[in-house]
Amino acid sequence: MRTAALLALIFILLLSNASLYMMYTNEHAKVVELQRKVEELTAGQTPTLPPAAQPIAEATIKAPAVSQSGEGMVTYITVAVAEGGGRVLVNTQPYMGVMFQESARTAVAVASELSGVDSSKLDFVFTVTANATVVEGASAGAAMTVAAYSALTGADINATVMITGTINPDGTVGKVGGILQKLDAANKAGSTTFLIPEGQAVQIVWVRKEKRVETPLGVLIMTYYEPESVDVKEYAKTVYNITVIEVHDIEEVLRLMLC
Predict the structure, then answer these.
(1) For 55-106, how does the pLDDT look when each residue is reduced to its tens digit (9 = 90+)?
(2) Is 150 a catalytic residue?
(3) Which of 115, 214, 220, 239 is in Cβ range 3.0-4.6 Å of 152 for a Cys bridge?
């Protein structure tokens, strides 16, 4: 009985394998036939790709930033303009955050309106050169607007002037953080004039202080922090010999930054 059962099982397995083999053979034949038809259809044809759009204008601007370690650093933002379909593209090396990408779109919209150029038939590609793995935030929005306007109009950017500030759809310059660190970056870049958003000429910094306290167990040193106000204009002039100017909107910025 066991022998008969074993023979029956082997017979069933052979039938199953035979069925699987037939299914594989049929499917393989279909694939081969499909490949043959594709080769017939494409025989003698050379694939053609649309040529990469060549930039018709380009501008680069220096922009201050704050590194991940909290220090001021200089970044270089380049915008290339080419014929296209109204796209605003951002290179992703280093990685560009969502806020930065949104600022790029706003910058192009504002620059196009001010210059009177129809950007619906143009593509804008922003590239950032920075000693960082991630570039995030909207504080370069005003600088990107200046770069886009320069590329669209051909106006030169004054390399001795730097700006920090966001860009709003109505063209006003919005507030940012890290003013003092970015001032240090402007100094590293050799700037003589530093533009900041209106209302940010006074910054609050937390200063570390120590206090000696006598106790029955001995002297204890208490460390604490107190807020102090810093006049950015006075500080910049005294420490770096840089002139700080508050700006309200991008039109004022263009008057100060373009040659």
Answers:
(1) 899 999 999 999 888 889 999 999 999 999 999 999 867 777 889 999 999 9
(2) no
(3) 115
Helix (H) / strand (E) containing 101: helix 98-115
* 129 found inside a domain: yes
Report the number of distinct structural domains present in the chain: 1
Task: Check residue 21 and give its pLDDT.
Answer: 45
Would 12 be classed as within a structural domain? Answer: no
- Residue 15 domain-assigned? no
* CA-wise closest residue to 192 among 257, 254, 142: 257
d(CA 182, CA 28): 65
Structural domain range at position 76: 55-202+232-257
Distance of CA 138 to the CA centre of its chain: 9
Q: Is 139 a catalytic residue?
A: yes
- Alpha-carbon separation of residue 64 from 131, 213, 216 (angstroms): 12, 42, 51
Choice among 182, 209, 229, 233 that is catalytic: 182
Helix or strand run (H / E) with residue 214: strand 202-215
N residues, the chain? 259
Q: Which of 112, 115, 119, 139 is catalytic?
A: 139
CATH assignment of the domain containing 86 = 3.30.230.10
In a domain, 23, yes or no: no
